[in-house]
């Protein structure tokens, strides 16, 4: 479970033209995936289509988040060079 996620302007631009009821449904789907890693299905074909375009970006961000919790790439250790 996360406390935040990235919501892109492109999501907003695609969703803002929808009727309020459909906006609410897709916002709920996005939030559920972004914060709780749960994919919610919709019966509405328009919502399914939009979510199909949005889901990969959220999934990628969630994967980056999970990978970051593992500590990321190990730091390089620089060897000290001594001159004689």
Features of this protein?
elongated; mainly alpha; 0% strand; 84 residues
Q: What string gives the helices and strands in order?
A: HHH
The major sheet is characterized as: none
Query: Strand tally, please?
Result: 0
What is the mean predicted local confidence, pLDDT?
Answer: 90
**Helical percent range?**
55-70%
**Percent of residues in β-strands:** under 5%
Distance between the termini: 56 Å
Report the principal-axis shape: elongated
Rg calculated over all Cα atoms: 20 Å
Poorly predicted sequence stretches spanning 5 or more consecutive residues: none
Structural class by SSE content: mainly alpha
Q: What's the total helix number?
A: 3
What does this structure look like?
This protein is mostly helical. It has a domain at 19-69. Helices cover 58% and strands 0% of the residues. Helix 2 (20-36) runs parallel beside helix 3 (45-69). The longest helix has 25 residues, at 45-69. The mean pLDDT is 90.
